[in-house]
Design a protein that fits this description.
With 65 residues, the chain is an alpha+beta fold. It has a single domain, classed as 2-Layer Sandwich (Alpha-Beta Plaits). It has two helices and four strands; from the N terminus they run βαββαβ. The longest helix has 14 residues. The radius of gyration is 10 Å and the shape is globular. It starts with a strand and ends with a strand.
Length: 65
């Protein structure tokens, strides 16, 4: 499992957008989001840097924990 602190993720639409793009990259990915804590937990076959790049391209800042 990969965990990112995502700066700029502030609402449900942010969560849906992030989940949609990660699922487009890896349909088998499991994604859990703690919006209050700004944390995204991802189980995926994709490397962490690829997942972070997808999130960062949305104008968020994904910081691995």
């Amino acid at each position: 499992m990969i965990v990112f602190n995502v700066k700029g993720m502030i609402c449900g639409q942010c969560v849906r957008t992030i989940k949609t793009l990660i699922k487009a990259l890896d349909p088998q990915a499991e994604i859990e989001v703690d919006l209050a804590g700004r944390l995204v937990h991802i189980t995926s076959c994709q490397p962490p840097d690829v997942l972070a790049n997808v999130i960062n391209e949305l104008d968020y800042l994904a910081l691995p924990l």
